[in-house]
């Protein structure tokens, strides 16, 4: 029997984390599927950390990352460089994830090739064209192109239905980030790394706030305000340790190092390997972030999150009370963080464990659906 050919495409750290369990799930079915992995390497070091942890060796590596890359060139290069791969491998299905430039350009190239485009993490919407920028539009374009939509939640399915996407092309699976988290948590607990042990020695059992941030719409004034708020929180809570793995984007590195570089209870560190980051999330009392993925992981770990954005395409955790949107407003970030550090009752209400984003079986459901589409079950 002829095998079904899958091409799984990703390029940045979060896509890699969220697609790794799908690569593994298809690998267990290799009598039915021939599955190849292509990375655009829109990210390089931050992507390679994830590939190493999940032991994935890409079949194709476009190696596209350039320092301070721009969206025009990156988009064009992805489409052009995918052409020979798509023509050589001729996949039946191409899988793209989420809302990055790799996702959007990959879905266009996949469509041109005649492959069926499967969108993993489909249907999230803020309905604000420029927030997040350019991700909201990347996701909408990919949603328009895709043949199969793997929506993580009923809310995301509903967003697609409202855009007249046919019901029979949408499957609610949960988010694959929870598949990755649940399998990795076990590994992390079994073998805490040397890095984690040396970090813990510096933290000396003190209370930790974990920070991450990278969104393009926060570059410039937004990051100046974020850093001002973090500086104030650190100075008014001298025993609390703020740990900030700083994204490698120079537009993030510059203000963060300039404003926060010399504060003794702020630890600016390099981006962490995924397993170490999970350990740090678990170790923290509170997370302040603008990350999409972290908003999804934190409820599963029972961690309150302040999200430094005005809108979110992930309303489930806000509704459940684990996440509060604080934007990049200095006073709001300080007030909410201080309240969570001092008000025990509020902290405990926000620290409830729950899983609005999935139960760890998303990839099984995706594989099952592709089998059903091909009458393989
Ligand atoms: C990208 C995605 C964003 C996603 C984020 C996750 C787009 C437009 N943006 O944003 O949706 O949320 O990744 O982190 O798709 N860099 C390195 N090494 C790395 C990674 C980045 O040096 O491993 C630096 C380079 O100078 C690069 C710059 O960061 O040019 C920006 O990378 P880019 O992928 O364009 O944007 P991100 O802000 O990382
Ligand atoms: N993450 C990581 N190391 C870090 C920071 C984050 O492995 O130092 C992981 C985190 O667990 C989550 C993902 O990276 O799964 C989020 O990536 P990012 O915030 O860059 O992108 P977004 O989710 O906002 O697109």
Report what the structure shows:
The protein contains 16 helices and 13 strands. It is an alpha/beta fold and 377 residues long. The chain has two domains: 4-174 and 361-373, Glycogen Phosphorylase B (Rossmann fold); 192-351, Rossmann fold, CATH 3.40.50. The strands form two sheets. A seven-stranded parallel beta sheet has the order 3-2-1-4-5-6-7, sandwiched between helices. The protein has a six-stranded parallel beta sheet with strand order 10-9-8-11-12-13, with helices on both faces. The longest helix is centred in the N-terminal third of the chain and has 19 residues, at 71-89. It is globular and about 65 Å long. The chain binds uridine-diphosphate-N-acetylglucosamine (UD1) and uridine-5'-diphosphate (UDP). Uridine-5'-diphosphate (UDP) binds at residues 13-14, 17, 177, 212, 214, 245, 271-272, 274, 277, 291-294, 297. Uridine-diphosphate-N-acetylglucosamine (UD1) binds at residues 12-14, 42-47, 65-69, 71, 99-101, 134-135, 214, 248-250.
**Strand order within the widest sheet?**
3-2-1-4-5-6-7
Give, in order, the helices and strands. EHEHEHEHEHEHEHHEHEHEHEHEHEHHH
CATH class of the largest domain: Alpha Beta
| End-to-end C-alpha gap | 14 Å
Number of helices: 16
Please provide a brief summary of the model:
Helix content is 50%, strand content 15%.
Features:
seven-stranded parallel β-sheet; binds uridine-5'-diphosphate; alpha/beta; six-stranded parallel β-sheet; binds uridine-diphosphate-N-acetylglucosamine; Rossmann fold; 377 residues; 13 strands
